[in-house]
Structures are given as structure tokens and as C-alpha cells.
Amino acid sequence: MPTWLTSIVWGTGAGAALVLGAAVSWRWAIPPKVVSTVMAFGAGVLISALAFDLVDEAVQGGGLWPTAGGFLAGAVVYVGANMLLARVGAKHRKRSGGQQPSEQDAPGSGTAIAVGALLDGLPESVVLGVGLLAGGGMSPAMLVAVFISNFPEGLSGTAGMKKAGRSKAYVFGLWGGIAILSGLAALLGYVALEDATEELVAFITAVAAGGILAMLADTMIPEAFEEHHNLTGLTASVGFVTAFAVHQLG
């Protein structure tokens, strides 16, 4: 299979976990503690992946300063965009309780939530494509981490959308569209940087890592703590160790 096509398949496949989580949440009423547990585990998995598969490899390939600069730039861009979206109704897009506003409560919030969900998923997808640049191979840990973390995002976000009165067409159109765009983002990450310098690849990889960490702190961890409280740290630690084991074995 051509490498460019592999990037699309992996990006779309990882994004499909959002649809899977949405399907489970739409079909069954998942207890809030279960949602929080899965979200905490997914957060731990992503933290491990961005530390060992993104930042560490970026430093080795392009050096400290491009990595540090890219990481901070990614965090700043994500936080800035997230603040703007929060003002128009997307602040609680990953919350499973009654925090999400309905379209009647906040006109335009449906669009804002869609854009916010896309913002959350793009950095993860881009790095899947970037990961194929070195020898045509991608870290299994990163692929597994994105898939595992996407499932609770779809699970929790859909639970909140249902309570806010969003339609089935909206929910599955949103997650399905993001899955497709995730594949295209992975392709973009591969094609756009195919002939780039190691420093630029490191910078872009670190931008994605910074955005992912900011996303975790702003959206996933608050939802994980909502019901889980004292066990959030332990569950996240289990997720971290799981992803680290996959990294080592891979």
C-alpha cells in the first residue's frame, strides 16, 4: 500500500473511534462514573504518547529549541482558539452531563461544538501522517493512543449532546465528518512535510504535542475528574503505563 494511502487509512481508522464511542453512548445510557473512568484512562494514554512518541522523537530529530518553540506555539494556538469557541457555546463539548447548551440556549453553539471537536482531533491526526516520514513506519503506541483516547471523547461528547437535545443526524454527522477529516489531516501531515528539514518536522510535531496537552488539560481531564475524583490520577496512571508498555514492546 502506498505510504500516502496508509496515512489516510490510519488517520481515518483512529478517527473512527469517535464514531464507535458515539454509537455506544447513543445506544446505551452510560453511567457518569464509567465515562469519567474511560476519559481518565484515555488522558493518561495520550500523555504517555506525546511524551515518548512525539516530544522525545522531535528532540532527537530536530533538537531542543525547535521542539520547545513548537510545543509552546501549539499550546498557545490551541488555548487561544479554545477560548474563542468557549464564548460561542463550545466550552463543554466533551462533558457528558448537562453542561452543554442546546441550540435554543445558545444559537450557533452546534457549529461551535463541531469546530471545537475538529480542533481537538486535528493535531493527533497530523502527527500520524508525520510519523510515516521516517522510514514509512508509524509508532504503534501513537496509533493505539489516538484510537483509545478518541473513544471516550466520542462517548462523553455524545452523552452531553443527547442531553442538550442534539439530533442523531447532527451527532453522527459530526463524528463521521471528523473521522474523514482526520484521514485527510494525516495525509496532509505526510505530504506537506515529505521534503521538510528535520528541524521543521520537529517543530510541527511539537506544535501538535503542545496542542494535545492543552486539549487534555482544558477538556478531557475536567470531564475525567467530574465523577471520578480521587481515582482520576490512578486511572490516568494506568493509561500512561499501558501506552508506555506498548511503546516499549513496539
Report on the architecture of this protein.
This protein is mainly alpha-helical and 250 residues long. Helix 1 (3-27) packs antiparallel against helix 4 (109-130) and helix 1 (3-27) runs parallel beside helix 5 (140-163). The protein is 80% helix and 0% strand. The mean pLDDT is 84. It has helices at 3-27, 32-62, 64-86, 109-130, 140-163, 168-192, 198-228, 232-249.
List how many beta strands DSSP finds.
Answer: 0
Percent of residues in β-strands: under 5%
- Per DSSP, the total helix count is 8
Structural class: mainly alpha
Tell me the Rg in angstroms: 17 Å
End-to-end CA span: 21 Å
Q: How would you state the average pLDDT, rounded?
A: 84
Shape: globular
> How much helix is in the residues?
over 70%
Uncertain residue ranges? none
User: What characterizes the major β-sheet?
Assistant: none
Query: How would you classify the quaternary structure?
Result: single chain
Order of helices and strands: HHHHHHHH
Give the tags.
globular; 0% strand; mainly alpha; 250 residues; 8 helices; single chain
Summarize the structure.
This protein is an all-alpha fold. The protein has helices spanning 3-27, 32-62, 64-86, 109-130, 140-163, 168-192, 198-228, 232-249.
What is the secondary structure topology, with strand pairs?
Elements: H1 3-27, H2 32-62, H3 64-86, H4 109-130, H5 140-163, H6 168-192, H7 198-228, H8 232-249
Helix pairs in contact: 1-4, 1-5, 1-6, 2-3, 2-5, 2-7, 2-8, 3-4, 3-7, 4-5, 4-6, 4-7, 5-8
